[in-house]
Amino acid sequence: MRERYLRDALPLRLNGLAADLGRIASSARRATGAEAVAALLEESQHLIEWTAAETPAEVAEELVNMQVLLALWRRAWPEAQSSPLQRSLLAVQAKQWADQVMLHAESVDR
Q: Alpha helices, DSSP H only, in the chain?
């Protein structure tokens, strides 16, 4: 997966990360999406790891901070998945992250 992902241009990779974050947002809202959320949290961490170094410093900093928060969510997810409030919180946060990453994808594409 890493090799395939790294073949894409930076804006496309950022769009892929944003799509993953969007899938976290939609899956976290559903009680039946717990396994998908766990996998997407891990995958998003990897996508950031493989991408952040190629972005401008301020974008890289945001991505690394996001990666830390994804790791915290991943660690808390086994308990958080049973709470509608926690699932909603993750969904809102992941949607905000997705929007933020999309803006960065547009800015590095210029």
A: 2-7, 10-28, 34-51, 57-80, 84-109
In this predicted structure, the answer to whether residue 87 has a pLDDT above a threshold of 90 is: yes
What's the distance, CA 46 to chain centroid? 9
**Residue 29 carries which side chain, given as an amino acid letter?**
R
Longest dimension (CA), the chain: 42
Which residues constitute the domain of residue 20?
2-109
Confidence of residue 4 (pLDDT cuts 50, 70, 90): confident
Token pair 């928060």 is found at 69
- Assigned token pair, 72: 């915290």
Here the tokens at position 1 are 């997966």
- Return d(Cα 24, Cα 7) in angstroms, integer: 24
Counting the structural domains of the chain, the total is: 1
C-beta separation of 63 from 51 below 8 A: yes
Judged against a pLDDT cut of 90, whether residue 72 lies above it is answered with yes
